[in-house]
Amino acid sequence: MEELKSKRANSPPQSPLSFIEKAATVFGDCPSIIYNNTTYTWSQTYRRCLQLASSLSSSGMISRGDVVSVMAPNIPAMYEVHFAVPFAGAILNSINTRLDARTVSVLLQHCQSKLVLVDYLSRSLVLEAISLFPPDTKCPSLVLITDDANDDGDGGCGAVDSGFCCTYESLVKNGDPGFKWIRPESEWDPIVLNYTSGTTSSPKGVVHCHRGIYSMVIDTLIDWSVPKQPVYLWTLPMFHANGWSLTWGIAAVGGVNICLRKFDTAVMYTLISKYRVTHMCGAPVVLNMLSNSPDSKPLKTPVHILTAGAPPPAAVLFRTESLGFIVSHGYGLTEVAGLMVSCAWKPQWNLLPATDRARLKARQGVKVGASTEVDVVDPVTGASVKRDGSSLGEIVLRGQSIMLGYLKDPVGTRKCLSEDGWFYTGDVGVMHPDGYLEIKDRSKDVIISGGENLSSVEVESVLYSNPAIDEAAVVARPDDYWGETPCAFVSLKPDFTSTSNKPTEKEIIEYCRAKLPHYMVPKTVVFQEELPKTSTGKIKKFVLREIAKSMGSSRLSRL
Fold this sequence. Notes:
Blueprint: H1 18-26, E1 31-35, E2 38-41, H2 42-58, E3 67-71, H3 76-87, E4 91-94, H4 101-111, E5 115-119, H5 123-131, E6 141-145, E7 166-167, H6 168-174, E8 190-195, E9 205-209, H7 210-223, E10 231-233, H8 241-244, H9 246-252, E11 256-258, H10 265-275, E12 279-282, H11 284-292, E13 303-307, H12 314-322, E14 325-333, E15 338-342, H13 354-361, E16 366-367, E17 373-377, E18 393-398, E19 405-406, H14 410-416, E20 423-431, E21 437-442, E22 446-449, E23 452-455, H15 456-464, E24 469-479, E25 483-492, H16 505-513, E26 524-527, H17 541-550, H18 554-558
Domain AMP-binding enzyme C-terminal: 458-538
Keywords: Ligase
Domain AMP-dependent synthetase/ligase: 21-407
């Protein structure tokens, strides 16, 4: 059979962009997007994506391989750009709307974005970010995404703020609905660029290809048992790893995307009831908010909710499932485009007490899809650790959805994508005798707060810039609401230790709030004469973690 080889007919590039073509054909008259009083069908959404891609491609603003950034919440435009931007041959870069102007400026410069699509509520932030560009740096063009139902899309100069070339709707209106979208030359061509939220001084731009995203979509739909035409409520930010790749996944099954600009539990329960929502995703904090909300009530029909980011507390799982939510738990990273591990549920576990079920469901689980391999290895020898639920090692992954690498960071890429064929996650875990993975700790001191990864090093760098602080270390403190919050331990310089000029906890927090995104600001500041250190002078963070843990929930301390 040596003469039987791959040919053009049996090896076209795999791409998630193809999903919307089928959706427009099969589910053309069915709703695709619902947002406030606006409803689009799949044929309309497909046409709008083609028109936007046509305008982007013909305007001269971008070319194949350019980066197009978007900063917007979960609105129709944010969904459409996941198809329209790569339709134009460009690479989509979704930016976290919670970042500050300084960070946004760094990211835009690092990826050399040619065009930024900006939601009207983020326009001031992006303009400030652009103003921070060095004088000799070329700035990207800006397009304003309005939220006005009466926007006629004329895109005149008077229709938008100064600094913006046109409106999003004008690009859609003036585009060609018959545009032949630019297909990837290879399935290894980049399709998206996502920045990890746990960056330190240098941004980590994760680059994914068409093939990897396609694989993640298929694996997620199969593992989560998503049927045709689900009703999906967008509580998970689309900027967060492209909504775990479900932006393309919902198109693959012709589902309905219920868009939600702002997280509000009362609105969410209304939408769940009104549209008979079947699926949604979110960090454990979302489960906590849903189950603790005064608007919570037993659901009329079950809602499948996929959670990840941190192990959901047993009490939160119990409360959430008692309302009628069916919770699935998984594990993934920006570098793998979604969830590569899920806590696959065994039928016999339904016979166990609620506390035991919650304990089992809090584990990260087993591999997702046929293309994935998961292991826990000794970081020195590379050998698998014992499957005893107690032997610690680094979690490693292998699969088609693993990133191509970090943009402009060959050292970082080689460090995690090793020659032995594994992706080293930096997370520490154990493997149980039944083959289920469980995270026990995190390397690099990453704190997960409300599903967002934040780097303690970045927070510490801001603390060290305070003239009163001598030493600083940031660790995770348990929080019943956010899962974890940053807890800062600081020692002061001699000139600032007296009662008259000693800064207060509130002043330190306000200092950080002026320099960091809100979710990265320490919620607790502990003053110490000297931070504990090893014999080599390194701060003993494991000691500080125990202190923070013994302090209990940071939320309870604020009540």
